[in-house]
Amino acid sequence: MSTVDPILENWYQDATTGRTFRIVAIDEEADAIEVQYFNGDIGEYDFASWLESGFLPIEAPEDWSAPFDVAEVDDLGYTDTDIHAPEMRDITLDDLLDGE
Predict the structure, then answer these.
(1) Could you read off the pLDDT of 16-39 as tens digits, one per residue?
(2) Distance from C-alpha of 100 to C-alpha of 96, rounded to nearest angstrom
(3) What is the DSSP letter of 53?
(4) How many Å apart are CA 60 and CA 62, to the nearest integer?
(5) DSSP single-letter state for residue 73
(6) Cα(23)–Cα(84) distance, rounded to whole angstroms?
């Protein structure tokens, strides 16, 4: 029996099957916990099924974004989105030819 509360965006592992998943939506009015498995499949549990499960909280897999549609770089936890050196951004061809 699970004593772990479902928390949006947290990762869990099914102790029985070994499958890992992330909670992508919780709708208490509809009695639904929507999950996305690491392979990209979508699933749903009601709260009673969740409480009867053997789900264990886990850390996010190293490359958790692979099966997910992550559109924003910020979603991956990166803080530096500019990989180019700032002094190289505004150089034109004329600038390079003037140096010869």
Answers:
(1) 999 999 999 999 999 999 999 988
(2) 7
(3) S
(4) 6
(5) G
(6) 35
List the domain boundaries for the chain: 11-61+70-98
Distance between CA 34 and CA 45 in Å, rounded?
Answer: 7
| 3-state SS, residue 95 | helix
In angstroms, rounded to a whole number, what is the distance separating the alpha carbons of residues 61 and 92?
42
Neighbouring CB atoms inside 10 A of 35's CB total 23
With helix as H, strand as E and coil as C, how does 34-100 read?
Answer: EEEECCCCEEEECHHHHHHCCEEEECCCCCCCCCCCCCCHHHHCCCCCCCCCHHHCCCCHHHHHHCC
* 71 — pLDDT class (breaks 50, 70, 90): very low
Q: Report pLDDT for 98.
A: 72
CB 20 within 8 A of CB 13: yes
Residues 6+ apart with CB under 8 A from 64: 11, 22, 38
20 contacts 37 by C-beta, under 8 angstroms: yes
